[in-house]
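Page header: ASSEMBLY MODEL / two components / 937 residues total.
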Amino acid sequence: MGRILVVDDTMFMRTLLKNILFSGSHDIVGEAEDGEDAVAKYKALKPDLVTMDVVMPKMNGIEALKAITALDPNAKVVMCTAVGQEQMVKLAIKTGAKGYIVKPFQAPKVLEEVNNILSS
Amino acid sequence: MSDEESYRKLFVAESVENHENIVNNILVLEEGSDDAAIDEIFRSAHTLKGMSASMGYMEMERLCHKMEDVFHSIRSGAIEISPELTDLLLACTDRIEEMIDDIEGGGDSSGIESEDLISKLKEIEAAANGEAKPESKPAEKAPEPAAAQPVAEETATGADDSSAGTEEAAAAPSTADSSSESTADAAKPASIPGTQQYKITAKVADECTMKDVRAMIVLQNLEDVGTIISSKPTAQELDEGIFESVLEVTIESDSGEDALRSAASVTDISEVTVEPIGAGNSSSPIYTIKLKIASDCSMKDVRAMLVLQNLEKCGSILSSNPNREQIDNGEITDTLEIVISSDKGEEELRKASSISDITEVVISASAAGSASQAPSPAPAPKQEAPAKETPAAPAAEAAEAKPRTAETASETQPAKAAGDEAKAKKEKAAATQAADKKKEFKNIRVDITRLDQMMNLVEDLVINGGRLKQIAKEHQIKDMDEALNMVSRSISDLQNLMMYIRMIPLSQIFNRFPRVVRDVAHHDGKEVDFIMTGGETELDRSVIDNLGDPLLHLIRNGVNHGLETPDVRKAAGKDPKGILKLSARREQGNVIIELTDDGAGINRQKVLNTAIKRGLISKEDAANYPDEDIPNFLFQPGFSTAEVITDISGRGVGLDVVKSAIESLKGSIKVETKEGEGTSFILTLPPTMAIIEVMMVRINDKRCAIPINTVVEIANVNFNKVTHIGKSEAILLRDEVLQINRLDQMFGPVKEDGIVVIVQYKGTKCCIPVDIVEGQQEVVVKPVSNIIGNCPGVGGVTIPGDGDVLPILDVNTMILN
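Prediction written out in full:
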């Protein structure tokens, strides 16, 4: 299945997401805890897909998304978001995000979105 | 279940961090508005909200959500920081702390309500919204901009947040460039025979969260495979959140029905229909619109966005220069050029373009094919050129063309940058930042228990290495001895490294102090400038763990007793705002923590009076009692000179407890004071408890270790002069009566009386007769296993290279017994 880079500033969320993705037999190739880290790891790891948190220190998810799509226009980035962040997500979609998942994560929803985007 | 438990642990650890972050930044805000602090609080509240929602702690989620909302409004300027607001926010953080504590203790925090705080937060929001924008409802979510302007603002702040990042990722706008251009390229096939118009409807599933965003994704995917003629709702409307559940799109495409269907079938789309309409080749006329924006216009980018949005309603915009992304990023000069396909006619387009600050509108109709090439001299049309060859080509090839355009874009970009010195500088900054990124790569988080396990393994290695060495010596295997020398060097490096890894910065406990100072100062009506330095100084985790409470006590004490009230200070000619300074530094292998206030200092007479009252000193001695010893009375159990016992400190429990806590960390505490000028508490701590310096002694051929910090001196005494006091023995040494503490029970009697080690705990000395003093060395302390039970007098064991297990004396219990 997919090689996935998980980006979130809390280990809690990363662990949660990793376990969901594992259960869908995806490979977690790396984790990043802020936007800069995410861009660096994207370069180094070339994952099939990135799950990207929006609110993060140093460089937020939108900026990281911009940088990643600049590196790879075909990058598949899924935004991790929460109700109330509609504007941010829209901005992300306009910037090139391929999809989004909503916190609190529901495993079937997360896997559906990730699988859809991986197979597109 | 264990999964649940590990989530809970992570949750607690990270919640505590975020909670602290909020508290400290609220305190920063109290000093004056600070955008970085607001952002930090916003981020932490958001993180807490997300985590608590994931764990199902709904009350906490509600509270954090509301706090996040309020900070959103603070950030946007709708709410101003006031003392009442900071008090309320701090009360919220206290509630959150309570919840975290409950969760840590195994509860689910459901018993802790926060409705009172939430409704207060709501009141503040409502009041602010009432003043700012009368008709808009109090924003439940992030305020959803109803007009175009706020959208622009939002994106603008988004860019501001990390404007450095945007510019460093220099290629970012250019890719966006190429992607929007590729839409424009795809537009051209509109006029090519063979394309077909379709009507597509996509229904978003009822249970989908953020339906409008789903619809946007569909629209965007469709843009990749054709040209969108119109959609209902429009992209703009979707952006504003106007969406029920069905998206209707009219599109022109040569990709075929299946491709369109799959582009529209994303997650949460429950139904897709694709119907061809009429024959293709129905393109509307194409116009090029050139606009001039008034040079004194203050927000040119917002103006440009408004024009684009107005024109969007008239037809479909094929390209613009600068493009949307550049406008979003504020990259715009005085001109805006738009290529649009529209059947509305020139007059309508002129009307849509002529908004305030637009000084000139030139509209020219152009033939479809040449439209985009002729009019715009900017790089944009150049990039369109290669794609022009692909119009009739299948989608796959078109997709291939995409990266190519991206390439051309990134080629033109640096060329432009070369002439621009500012940009070159930014690139340099980007390079250094890249180096920083590499550094961050190396940080990982490890469970402390794993480090402990590793430490144990390293210690086993040390012991077994020592044994091997002895074997090599006994059997006189020289090669092995040499090899083992190398091994033991590596082992000792490894051991040092492990020590280093266990170190954490003092800031971990320092962080909660500003809040404490604030609270005590408020309570006492004092003004305090609390300064912390040296938070980066590192100590072993075990030391840090036990240092928090004693330090907390000293700090409370400092504000409560050390500093005077503003009136008293003014009367004494001091600044009404007192200074409390907490600093930490490394000094000769030790860590020194100093807490200094510029208060009244310790009153000699007051202390002496209390000491006399309590029978600690006679009136006669008191008169000549040395100044520097005065503060030591404060460390006597139950000693307090405070006239009023407050609920914060001054109950007489305290400084003695602080002292023994510091001593149990193998550290020491000292007080320096000057009446009228202030008091300093100076703590000296070993950076780690796992390694201590000991004196090795031999009693009855058995070795034992005495912690060096308890050893006063080694003396050769004449045992003939021993006096017996009851059952115990004592000896007179330099006018001091010292009790003799024989360790016969532990080791058997010494072979010959003569040498004693004099040890001291809390000012009480005693001497231990020994046979031989072997010397001083650093040893690794291993705690005594619980299975063995309580062994008074033994603080731990150590295992030197030869594999012996040696007790380390616990001098304080020995003396107390």
